Write a sequence for this structure.
């Protein structure tokens, strides 16, 4: 309720308590591909439709760094461990191929 009192008073910046979660949420919101910038009018239906689409995107398409760059949906469906393991397998394979490439194409001499 402390947050609600500050919002109702309109004190977002001056003398407002630190709200890192709110700031992080708005930062993510503003960087979302579905963010319209400004709403042309504050029609509740338009705003509700936007946030419905935003939360669908956020939970099903947006990769989250705190959970290993998987979506919350993948995490809740217990797919995250498999996805991360597959990424590590592919990365290891590519690193081996890169080492083979550079060892086969290494130039001799001091012309570099």
């Amino acid at each position: 309720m402390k947050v609600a009192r500050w919002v109702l008073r309109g004190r977002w910046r001056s003398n407002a308590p630190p709200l890192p979660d709110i700031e992080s949420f708005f930062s993510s919101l503003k960087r979302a591909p579905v963010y319209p910038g400004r709403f042309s009018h504050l029609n509740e239906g338009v705003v509700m439709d936007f946030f419905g689409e935003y939360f669908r995107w956020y939970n099903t398409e947006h990769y989250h760094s705190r959970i290993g760059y998987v979506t919350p949906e993948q995490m809740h469906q217990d797919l995250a461990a498999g996805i991360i393991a597959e990424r590590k397998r592919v990365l290891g394979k590519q690193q081996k191929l890169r080492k083979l490439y550079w060892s086969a194409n290494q130039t001799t001499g001091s012309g570099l």
